[in-house]
Design a protein that fits this description.
single chain, alpha+beta, eight-stranded antiparallel sheet, elongated, six-stranded antiparallel sheet, 18 strands
Length: about 800
């Protein structure tokens, strides 16, 4: 079994040392996990007031206290919830001298509410986490009777003030028959303490102690953490918008799984309803119906779940393209093949990674002695009746959120928009994962916060790149749950032992499940378990691979460089609108100072035109050596292609593509050319920007004639050949493309600084002038500038064709 695991994890022929290291890592991860867990518990600074009660104990203490005050609350209904002040908690943790506040005004308390059977009387009692009554408030059905002299009232209020905190004389406020005494103290550094005692008649009806930082106090302890969390929140907002866009794009391509998106959305809705149920059973909702509360939380959960589903589902498709096989085990799990080897390997490897990462966190965090890594949430847990179930719901959902926002969507963006610059992929991923990892409760020290974030980033990325996405989910779930459990055990050891045993049982069960799958389960391939939309992706990828190969072949057909003719300055370019274009150009040295120029118009037929051109080039390499007349060359070329391709009767031609072939004689100073169809165009412009005409030559067996041109050339003349992508853009102003090309050439020569505009400069101006506008089309342009020709008559009239 171990050998098969190593083969799956280590492709190729790894060295013996590498195999031994991986073997040790897999076999010893339970030891690493246990050691790391104990180190985390040890690293937590001892709490000033350990949690020793739960919600049941808090209710019992509150009920006994009210009875001791003469309030018959024995049969009253009761509810309990935790009340936490995170700002006060950070304030206390910043200075050990403020720990005294835990005795009278702690930042975390159990708030117990009790109501009489007819709801005519109500009382609330504030109980500390170690079981002390800190204050209460009682609303009687009728105002208490009796009265006391002022001195007795003052003594009664003073008896409710805790000793040892330097409370001075109170201020008195009498309102509606209530005597409100307010005591103040500044005995705790940078803190303002107030103890408010309310007496109605002869009874104390309310005691409340508050602690607040002074107005001059500035919290600087979590500045870095708050800043990073704000940036992380903004990043998640951007990811959400990008996810919606990508989901819509994938949906149009039928490359997204709506069923999986619905599962994720319903999972979030179910979690939200569980939170609502947790809130209901741990608090008094009053007259608000339970169904309404669940409905509100369900709607909120579906909205949040829809965003998470869009992030997961759209990113999942890009992962399938860029990293094949990374979702196979997750697909197997979701399609019901739970006991396959793929799932077992992912679960085991994810747990092994989590064990060693927890150990690394325990070792690295030792110098910082975590002051309060999980804030008041851990201390509040014992007062929630369903708190023991929350880690098994919260941690997987948190892992899914981290994976969607910190891994899937960044990878999707990089694969889509930064595909070529792969050296930037890993740095960008590290930054994105780091920003997502900051969206958690702040720590008591910046060092601990950064180290924990680094471990979460490692838990997110390492299992994915070493194996797959399911192992990442398992690793993140184990790391986050172990961290929370360690803090809980340190804060409330007597109440967390059961949770520790439950977590150990779950971890052991997951390990046993993974080993059983590896020993008995079948292996599955990606093709066996991938969803329907993934098949669409596979088909598109296969087609893109074929098109990419065709594009590569087409690029190889294009000339690597323009020919070197002393009498000519040549520039040429072909920019396809799609991956495979239909346009083409080539040059054929003909000897005796002659150059053949071939250009093809694909008529937006892409791959079909590219195949036609491949055959045309092969034929022309022999044809141009045997025949001199361009009309004859094109006639024979079309005849050859008609024997292979079905003629197009509607267009009156025998191929999918139109051609032009020009022969430039630099010795005789002459150009002869022929062309088929409306495009390509051949424009010969004299030095004084004159454009001349061409004639039509009937061809036997061809419905439409072939255009033929011949002209004399002299120094400074230009020959411009272009396809319809250039021509239609030049003709936007209802001008003939020939005239527009000549005008653009004239302007270019006037704008270019220097003696003479080169062919490259002219070509760049043509492309700049025709950039954008209209629908996408192939842009092919050849510019030839006549520098010098021999044996020309200086007074020869230029008969130029277009």
């Amino acid at each position: 079994m171990l050998e098969s695991i190593l083969i799956a994890l280590l492709p190729g022929q790894p060295s013996l040392a590498v195999r031994r290291a991986w073997t040790a890592g897999l076999l010893l991860f339970p030891v690493a996990l246990a050691t790391g867990f104990l180190l985390l518990v040890r690293n937590v600074s001892p709490t000033v007031v350990p949690v020793t009660i739960n919600s049941t104990g808090a209710i019992r203490i509150a009920r006994d206290f009210l009875i001791s005050q003469g309030i018959d609350a024995g049969a009253w209904s009761a509810s309990c919830k935790s009340a936490a002040n995170d700002n006060l908690l950070s304030f206390i943790n910043e200075n050990p001298d403020r720990n005294r506040l835990w005795q009278i005004a702690p930042p975390v308390v159990a708030d117990v509410k009790l109501r009489s059977p007819g709801r005519r009387e109500m009382a609330s009692v504030s109980v500390s986490v170690d079981g002390k009554v800190l204050g209460f408030s009682w609303t009687p059905e009728k105002p208490p009777g009796g009265s006391l002299p002022d001195a007795a009232l003052a003594d009664l209020s003073t008896a409710r003030v805790p000793a040892g905190f330097g409370f001075g004389k109170p201020s008195l406020d009498i309102t509606k028959g209530k005597h409100v005494y307010t005591f103040r103290s500044s005995s705790v550094p940078d803190a303002a303490l107030t103890d408010t005692v309310t007496i109605q008649g002869a009874r104390v009806t309310s005691v409340e102690i508050k602690a607040e930082p002074d107005e001059t106090y500035t919290d600087r302890g979590e500045g870095w953490q708050v800043g990073l969390t704000i940036v992380g929140s903004l990043f998640v907002c951007v990811v959400s918008l990008f996810s919606i866009y990508r989901y819509a794009s994938r949906m149009q391509q039928q490359e997204v799984s709506h069923s999986r998106s619905l599962i994720v959305a319903l999972l979030c809705a179910g979690f939200a309803m569980f939170v609502a149920l947790n809130a209901v059973v741990n608090s008094d909702t009053g007259p608000v119906p339970l169904a309404l509360i669940l409905l509100v939380f369900a709607v909120m959960g579906i909205v949040c779940g829809a965003l998470l589903a869009a992030a997961y589902s759209s990113g999942e498709g890009d992962i399938r393209e860029a990293y094949p096989g990374k979702l196979t085990s997750l697909d197997a799990l979701l399609t019901g093949r739970i006991f396959c080897r793929n799932t077992g390997l992912s679960v085991l490897f994810g747990m092994a990674c989590a064990g060693w990462l927890v150990l690394a966190l325990g070792l690295l965090d030792a110098p910082f002695r975590i002051a309060q890594p999980q804030g008041s949430r851990v201390m509040s847990g014992p007062f929630a009746r369903l708190a023991g179930v929350m880690p098994f719901v919260m941690c997987p959902l948190l892992s899914l959120s981290f994976a969607a926002a910190g891994l899937l969507q960044p990878l999707a963006f990089l694969q889509r928009y930064v595909k070529r610059a792969r050296r930037w992929h890993m740095p960008v991923l590290l930054i994105c994962a780091g920003l997502v990892s900051t969206l958690r409760t702040h720590s008591g020290s910046n060092g601990d916060f950064l180290i924990t974030s680094a471990i979460l980033v490692a838990a997110l990325l390492l299992p994915f790149f070493l194996l797959d996405l399911l192992s990442t989910m398992v690793c993140l779930t184990m790391v986050t749950s172990t961290m929370g459990l360690a803090i809980s055990l340190a804060v409330a050891p007597s109440l967390t032992v059961t949770s520790v045993l439950v977590h150990i049982t779950v971890a052991a069960g997951a390990t046993g499940f993974a080993l059983f799958c590896l020993a008995r389960g079948p292996s599955v391939t990606e093709q066996q378990v991938r969803p329907l939309y993934a098949r669409h992706i596979a088909q598109r990828q296969a087609l893109e691979a074929e098109v990419s190969a065709a594009r590569e072949a087409q690029l190889r057909l294009l000339p690597e460089s323009v020919p070197d003719f002393a009498a000519l300055d040549i520039s040429a370019a072909c920019v396809p609108a799609e991956t495979v274009g239909g346009d083409f150009y080539d040059f054929f040295p003909l000897g005796d100072g002659r150059l053949g120029v071939f250009i093809a118009e694909g008529n937006n037929r892409g791959l079909a035109a590219a195949l036609t051109i491949a055959l045309a080039k092969g034929y022309l390499m022999q044809c141009v050596e045997r025949f001199r007349e361009p009309v004859e060359i094109l006639t024979r070329l079309e005849s050859m292609l008609s024997s292979i391709f079905t003629p197009d009767p509607t267009a009156g031609r025998s191929s999918l593509t139109d051609f032009a072939f020009a022969s430039i004689d630099t010795v005789a100073g002459e150009i002869r050319y022929a062309r088929t169809g409306a495009y390509p165009k051949v424009v010969v412009v004299s030095a004084n920007a004159v454009v001349a005409s061409e004639r039509l030559v009937p061809v036997t067996g061809r419905q439409s004639p072939i255009s033929e041109g011949r002209a004399r050339l002299t120094s400074g003349d230009h020959v411009i050949l272009f396809t319809d992508g250039i021509g239609r853009r030049l003709a936007l102003g209802n001008r003939r493309p020939e005239d527009a090309a000549a005008a653009l050439l004239s302007r270019t020569k006037g704008q270019i600084s220097g003696e003479v505009a080169t062919a490259d400069q002219i070509g760049q101006r043509f492309f700049a002038a025709t950039k954008g506008s209209l629908e996408p089309d192939d842009l092919t342009l050849v510019v030839i500038q006549i520098k010098a020709v021999g044996e020309l008559e200086s007074t020869a009239a230029l008969r130029v064709v277009a």
